[in-house]
Every structure is written in structure tokens, then in C-alpha cells.
Amino acid sequence: MQAKKRYFILLSAGSCLALLFYFGGLQFRASRSHSRREEHSGRNGLHHPSPDHFWPRFPDALRPFVPWDQLENEDSSVHISPRQKRDANSSIYKGKKCRMESCFDFTLCKKNGFKVYVYPQQKGEKIAESYQNILAAIEGSRFYTSDPSQACLFVLSLDTLDRDQLSPQYVHNLRSKVQSLHLWNNGRNHLIFNLYSGTWPDYTEDVGFDIGQAMLAKASISTENFRPNFDVSIPLFSKDHPRTGGERGFLKFNTIPPLRKYMLVFKGKRYLTGIGSDTRNALYHVHNGEDVVLLTTCKHGKDWQKHKDSRCDRDNTEYEKYDYREMLHNATFCLVPRGRRLGSFRFLEALQAACVPVMLSNGWELPFSEVINWNQAAVIGDERLLLQIPSTIRSIHQDKILALRQQTQFLWEAYFSSVEKIVLTTLEIIQDRIFKHISRNSLIWNKHPGGLFVLPQYSSYLGDFPYYYANLGLKPPSKFTAVIHAVTPLVSQSQPVLKLLMAAAKSQYCAQIIVLWNCDKPLPAKHRWPATAVPVFVIEGESKVMSSRFLPYDNIITDAVLSLDEDTVLSTTEVDFAFTVWQSFPERIVGYPARSHFWDNSKERWGYTSKWTNDYSMVLTGAAIYHKYYHYLYTHYLPASLKNMVDQLANCEDILMNFLVSAVTKLPPIKVTQKKQYKETMMGQTSRASRWADPDHFAQRQSCMNTFASWFGYMPLIHSQMRLDPVLFKDQVSILRKKYRDIERL
């Protein structure tokens, strides 16, 4: 009996084991076949729930690694509707792993360089003013091309700036409109601009359509969703932000100590609930009503009274007592807390006001963070440590505060004061990624004059630019090249151009002389030119136009250029003195003939004058020294429209060069010793070559002034009352004690 029981138990156990192995094998094979079916269904847009669906989900459970671009295939998607699933599939996370190396076609940029194509505007499509300004900035830049076959980068004409579904600027059916573009190519080599994404209550960063492999130039982007070396974080700017030019910063004087009436200020909305409400609701803890003034108001939105809390009335009363602009102008630090989104208009307002931004927006990828070192211009705070902010900023030394304020002004004027600068900075950053071998370094981006005016195509060595001699410990150049602009035939050995050539050649600083022959007559024979101690090269100007005098000729071997009109009267002593002055100001134009500009109230336009006054704003390039880099900048930075105007008028090229240099340096030129008898020698009123004999000469120059100011978006010329003379100039001492004694005899 006992033996039967034992056999029965063994048989039962064996049967159980057999069943266990049998059903376990089926489960294993079923899971493998299910994974194959799921992979196949994923390709065909179908989906089947997995067995895991029936098990409870724990929010803190560890999850296996899944690439960002495969999140849409997770099991959790069974809980959402097909429409929600399509929206999720179109989110910006789909291309989370995109980088320049994986989602950008560099071959498009090798043939024609960095060219940007803007899609033609489609009929019936409305474009907001802000996006029109962005497109206009691109189309007016040196990067623009109207031929898509030459393009390296593509920008949509469809307005993508505001993707908040509750906004009147929201463009519907953008997904289908984008997909229908024949050049879209899944977004490859495309750049999408966006200021607002998501909507109430979550304000996600989803732009509402599948961007594919396109890059985002996006405001309020988080570090979590920012794709390094691919996306570009841009600032949030208002619809009133100027398209070009823009106002200068508010820091007029470097006040020492750099402290103002208020230590820390803020004035803005307070959100009672929802995202972005925590920090602003806590500001009253820090507000002291004296040097820390943090004002909020609940009075916004239609139903604010229904949701107001016990502090709203008191906050609103305090809010009305202060003028916002007065606070900005009199504050040392400006709090920039996050709003509903990470970015805020307060950021640019603080920069312009020379009010050091104190950032309270955890996770915000700051604008142009790829190239700008924000630690030099802002205080990066933590929302969780709000109560420590006052003591932190009070501990910053006054020297550091002044440096921070100065840097805010540089960054504002270099990259943020206009829509054009924001767009061009974005494009320059992308161009640096493509052509890494000539990309700008951090010093260029974070030091005057900034990355927009330092073109790396000119040189990869900082010492070849006029702005970095002190940083590199270099001395300015010790020699110059004289470039004489000749427009009349050589008929006599007593012509002023030959006397000028000899005077320049005798200078101890002269390395060579180039005669730019822009005359209609053939080049004179070599024996017609006088023998000199320095080499003389005669080259024909390109197309015989005025702008050719500022071409970056390879023949110019020195960094310093002495630009001369053929009828200029200068002595060797004057040339020597002007060059020694330029060595102290290598980034500016230094010379003799000065002119000025003024605002004509009666005509409401800019005027031009050659009258002798107590100030000036231009030094004409008929007798001036400057760095040869400005030849390259004149040729490659300025638009063809301005240069064509100069060539058609055969006038104004010197004014345009002054506009350019003052726009770059934010400084006036330098005038050296005045000669009472100096004048632009007219070559006879009957001479067709003399621009000064033309009665329309000054009228043309007035017109040029206004055209140039319109393109720059502001008047870059700056008045100066400084004139540099030699030591002991006209002092009542022996002439033998004076180094530049000949100047007084002229």
C-alpha cells in the first residue's frame, strides 16, 4: 500500500514537471513571436497590447533603457486615443538623438558655402509681423540665396513662431502643409524658429507637428529637450522688438561704485496656480520695500477675481506704486523668474538696462549658450534657494558688478538688440558647426566686437584682427602699405599724385606703395613712375568702380593701410605722425580730413556737412590709416545694394567705410593735427574726374547718409571733439626740440 502511494506521488510530481516545462516553453515561444509581431506591426502602424499590460504599474519602478525616438512604441501608448498617439508621435522628442553628424547633410554646404533658402510664401497664408522680420533678416543677409539648389540650410515661410493652440497667431494644419513641401526631406537641413510652444495648463515644448530631422531655433527650451550642437536656444522677444538696429544699452557711464538705488527688483504677473506659480508666489518673502523691491500682481486674465487669494489686493496696491522703467534704470540686479514657460521678456529688458539678470528658471537652456559665457553677464540662481538670493548678490564685489554690467551691454548690442542680430547670431552659430576648422572661439564671441563682425573666413589667427592685440600681448604693426586711388591719366611729372607717392615712399614706416589704377586710360609705362626706396605696384581696379578701392587685395602685405586720394596733399612728417597715432588705436580710422553729420529737423533726415566745427564724426579715406581687415569686411559683410549705390554714384564710399567701422567699434574715428590750408585739391572745375567739381556732390552724400542709416537700422556714426597733435605742437619752445617740427611749417 505504501509503495503504491510513493509511485503515485512520483507520477504526479513528474506530470507536474512535464506540464510546467510544456507551458513554460509555450510562453517563451509566444513572447518571442509576439515581439516579432509587434516589431512588424510597428512598421505597419499597428499595435497590440503586451501581456505586461495586465500587470499593475508602479510609478517608481525601474524602467529599461529605451531610445527617445522609440518612446512612441511603448506599452503605455495603449491608454491613449489614436489622435493623442499621433500627436505624441509628432513631438519634438522623436528626433531627440539628432546631432549635426547624424541629421545634417554637410555635402550641401561644400559646393556653394553656407547659403540659406527661404521658401516662397504660399497664397492665403498669414504671417505674423515677428516672423516676417525673421524672414526679412535672412533675405537681407549675405547668406541668402533664392536658388534652392545652392542652399545649405532651408527655412519655412510657414509661420512656426507661435504654436500655442489658444493663440490667434496659431497656424492650423501645419503638419500636412509641411509634409507637402517637396524640399522637406523629413526636415533634414531645415531650421525651424519657435517662440511659443504648448498651451494651458502644461505648456509643453511640443511644437505640434513632426519636425523630423530639422533643427530648432527655440525660445524657452529646457536643457532636457535641448539637443546640444544641433538646436539653438534663442531669447523670447516681443512683437515690438526692432527688426534692425535697435536701441543702445542704458549704461552711459562706467559709474564707480556701480551700485544703484535698488539692489534687486522685479515687477510682473503672479500666477496663483499651475506651472510657473511656485517661484513668483514666494517672492513676497524676499521683498523688503527698500533696496529689494519684488512686485507681483494677480490682476491679469478674465477671471482673476474668482481665483484671487488673501494677498492679491495688497500686492496689486503695492504693484501700482512703482514705475517699471524707473526701477530698471535704478537697479543693480534684476530678477528674471520663469513664467508659464522657462523664458521671460524680463531677460532682454534687464540686459538692455545694464541691470545684471538674476536667473530663476531651473532647467532653462540660456540663449546662445553654445557660444556665450553667461557667467560673465548674469547670476544663475536656483528656484529652490530663493531666500538666499539677496545675501548672495550682496556678497558680489563692486569690481565684479561693474564687469557684469559692462558685459550685459556688450551682449545686448552685439546679439540681442534687434531681430536681425538674433537671426544672424543663430545662422553664424550653425555656420561655425559646419565649418569647424574656421569656427570662432569663445574669446571672439564674448569680447568686443563680437562674433557677427569677426569673420573667420578672413583668418583663423586672432592676431590678424585689429581687436585682440592686447589680449595676445602683441604690438600693433610697424609698417603700412600706401594705397593711392588714381582716376586721372598721368600726363605730367608735376601732377599731385607723383608728389604724394614720393612723400609716402619717404616715410620710415612705409613697406610698399600700391597705385590702384581706376582710370579709363591704359596703365602708364613703368618709366613714368618715379624711383623710390620701397616697391611700387600699379594694379588695375576691378571694373573701374569706386568700391574696388576697398577690395582685399592680396598685394597688401601689411595689416595697416594708408588710403590716399590722388589729389591729397600730405608731407612725409604728417604720414609718420598719423601712423604713430594709429598704432595706439589700431581698430579705428585715423586721418586728416574730417566731416560731420547732423539731424535736420526741418527735413526729418540726416544731413552731411564739411564745415569746420568743434566736432566731427567721420574721417575721409582720402587721407586715412586703418586696418586692412576693413577691406574684407567692406567687401563681404556689406550688402551688394549699398556697394552698387556707391559705384553708380561714384561717391560715398568713404562715408560707407566710416559707417562700417563705427558700427563695429562703437567708437568715433581719430582726427590728427589740423592744417588750416588743408583742402581736397580740386583738379580744375572743368575736370570730369573731379568729384568735388560736381554740383550734386553734397546732395548725393546727404542721400547716401540716409540710405546707409536705413540699412544699419540706426545711425552708427559718433561725434568726437578729440584731435591729437604732436607733443609741443605750437608750443613756444625751440623748433629743434620738436619731433614733428615740419607739421607747423605747413
TrEMBL record:
GO-annotated biological processes: heparan sulfate proteoglycan biosynthetic process; ossification
Keyword set, alphabetical order: Disulfide bond, Endoplasmic reticulum, Glycoprotein, Glycosyltransferase, Manganese, Membrane, Metal-binding, Signal-anchor, Transferase, Transmembrane, Transmembrane helix
Domain Exostosin GT47: from-to ranges: 111-395
InterPro entries: Exostosin, Exostosin_GT47, GT64_dom, Nucleotide-diphossugar_trans
EC class name: transferase
A GO molecular-function descriptor: metal ion binding
Pathway: Protein modification; protein glycosylation
Record's catalysed reaction(s): 3-O-{alpha-D-GlcNAc-[(1->4)-beta-D-GlcA-(1->4)-alpha-D-GlcNAc](n)-(1->4)-beta-D-GlcA-(1->3)-beta-D-Gal-(1->3)-beta-D-Gal-(1->4)-beta-D-Xyl}-L-seryl-[protein] + UDP-alpha-D-glucuronate = 3-O-{[(1->4)-beta-D-GlcA-(1->4)-alpha-D-GlcNAc](n+1)-(1->4)-beta-D-GlcA-(1->3)-beta-D-Gal-(1->3)-beta-D-Gal-(1->4)-beta-D-Xyl}-L-seryl-[protein] + UDP + H(+)
Every Glycosyl transferase domain range: 480-729
EC number assigned by the record: 2.4.1.225
Location within or outside the cell: Endoplasmic reticulum membrane; Golgi apparatus, cis-Golgi network membrane
SUPFAM superfamilies: Nucleotide-diphospho-sugar transferases
TM ranges: 7-28
Membrane topology: Single-pass type II membrane protein
Any Pfam family hit: Exostosin_GT47
Gene Ontology cellular-component annotations: endoplasmic reticulum membrane; Golgi apparatus
Domain of life: Eukaryota
UniProt family annotation: Belongs to the glycosyltransferase 47 family.
Subunit structure: Part of the heparan sulfate polymerase, a dimeric complex composed of EXT1 and EXT2. Could also form homooligomeric complexes. Interacts with NDST1.
Reported function: Glycosyltransferase forming with EXT2 the heterodimeric heparan sulfate polymerase which catalyzes the elongation of the heparan sulfate glycan backbone. Glycan backbone extension consists in the alternating transfer of (1->4)-beta-D-GlcA and (1->4)-alpha-D-GlcNAc residues from their respective UDP-sugar donors.
UniProt-recorded name of the protein: Exostosin-1
Underlying gene: EXT1
